[in-house]
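User: Hi! I have a protein structure encoded as tokens and I'd like to know what sequence might fold into it. I'm fairly new to this, so please keep things simple.
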């Protein structure tokens, strides 16, 4: 399955690879080769091929043998969430929340947390 984030897509393996980098960055490319050998059974060229694809997509960069993110995990997840709501619910956050909450009840703590978020962002918008 391919996961798209505002024009940036990652397949399941690419996503797992990205998680490895995000969890360890900055990570030396030599170390990344060893990690991928253990995690996926990849050889050096496979690791570099996947890294090259993700650098071309603007998610990571390899500077002098050290891999760092251009797009943080949080930024990517935000984009992915936005894409999901846009594609599935026509961009309507209320429609998403209605569908989400119809499948299960919110706990009082979850409902309170959502109310606080709404209040916070409503106050920020009115400034």
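Assistant: Happy to help. Inverse folding works backwards from shape to sequence: for each of the 127 positions I chose a residue that suits the local structure. Here it is:
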């Amino acid at each position: 399955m391919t996961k798209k984030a505002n024009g940036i897509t990652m397949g399941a393996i690419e996503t797992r690879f990205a998680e490895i980098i995000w969890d360890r960055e900055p990570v030396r490319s030599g170390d990344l080769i060893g990690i991928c050998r253990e995690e996926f059974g990849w050889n050096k060229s496979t690791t570099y091929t996947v890294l090259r694809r993700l650098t071309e997509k603007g998610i990571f960069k390899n500077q002098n043998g050290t891999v760092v993110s251009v797009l943080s995990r949080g930024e990517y997840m935000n984009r992915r969430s936005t894409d999901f709501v846009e594609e599935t619910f026509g961009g309507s956050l209320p429609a998403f929340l209605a569908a989400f909450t119809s499948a299960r009840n919110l706990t009082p703590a979850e409902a309170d947390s959502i109310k606080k978020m709404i209040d916070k962002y409503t106050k920020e918008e009115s400034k």
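A useful reference point when you look it over: The beta strands are 3-5, 8-10, 27-28, 60-63, 66-69. Feel free to ask if any position seems puzzling.
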